Amino acid sequence: MVVFNYLINFIEGFILSSFIAFYFDLKDKIKYISIVSLICFSLISISNFINEFDHFLLYILIIALLISLWITKKDKNFEDIIICFIAGMMLLIANLISLSCTSLIFNISTTDIYDNQQLFVFAIILSKLIFTFIAIITCAFKLKTNTKLPMKYWWIILILGLSIIFVLAILIESLLSNFMSSNMILILMIAIIVISFLFLVIFRKIQIENAEKIKLALEIQKNKYNTENYNKIVAISNQITEAEHRMMYVLMQLRTCIDNMDYENASIITDQYIKKVKSFNSMITTNNPYFDFIISRKINELIFQDIYVKKTIFISQNDIYNNKNFCDLILKIIYIFEINLDNSKELNLGISQESNFVLIEVIGRLTTNNFKISDEINNLIKLFNADFTLNNTKEIVTLKLIIEI
């Protein structure tokens, strides 16, 4: 029986060390399992020799696993503490299930199992099998803990885990012995008070951490918003610069005409420019400021090039329209039509919103029969996961996009 006890002690230590090694996927598993198995075997054997098991041995085993894990691993986090406690709980649960099953199978009370050597051996072997099964299942599904509290609060988790193990061990012992003294009840009450207090402390720490995460997320969002605004301002600035260049070109034409005393031509240029400016005054107003400005500028740029643009835009206010990539997509589509227009120089632009979708339609009579969109436009279409169709009928090309918003 002594040899059997030593064998069981070694198997128990081997299962505990193997569980930790495979759960955390340690580099040198064989070395870790060999050393920690011997440590656990020694602790369990010494405990058996002085006839002490229960709570204190379990605590010592958990602490030994934790220390060995931290020596082996480079980084330390709360998952280490939690999993070591889970290993101890699995050992307790395996013993409880084993004794309960043995009692049920052989119709004998749990207290009488200890007096029957054969049943006791059966219960021990069953316990180790159950323990092995639980360990394998746990490693297979590998618990994912999201605890991100700083390591300076490790003592909270440690005390909480020890308290839970303590309460669980007393309850299992009372269940198996069918006895609970008033002192045990008092100790349980104190332990539950400690657990409740520690739970509140942890809850508070999590609240503080969550508030910090929200603050950080808001800062990131703010920076992103500032970057987007900056890019939009740069784009608007470029559009204004282009308008200034056009104005300068017209003024230089007028200056040349005046210097040459060609007042008739100067009058014609002035009338043409006034006509174009009047067209420019027909701005798009959809309550999407960036979209309105960028698309209006593009349409007026086409007007300055004597391209007639028939626009039909029915959209409501939505963040997607002020998205730079969205506006860039429309601008690039218009441009690729613009450079391929025939002498009629007429372009239809339709943008409408229906429910959660926006429909973009561009129609133009083009000079090429082999019209293709650029890779840059294709990438933007993929970015918005848009449905895309391109039809070419008698030199009239129709491009349609449907984008979910």
From TrEMBL:
Q: Which UniProt keywords apply?
A: Membrane, Transmembrane, Transmembrane helix
Does rRNA-binding appear among the keywords?
no
- TM annotation in the entry: 6-25, 32-50, 56-72, 81-106, 118-141, 153-172, 184-203
| Domain of life of the source | Bacteria
Task: From the UniProt record, list the coiled-coil ranges.
Answer: none
* Name the UniProt record assigns to this protein: GHKL domain-containing protein
Q: Which organism is it from?
A: Longibaculum muris
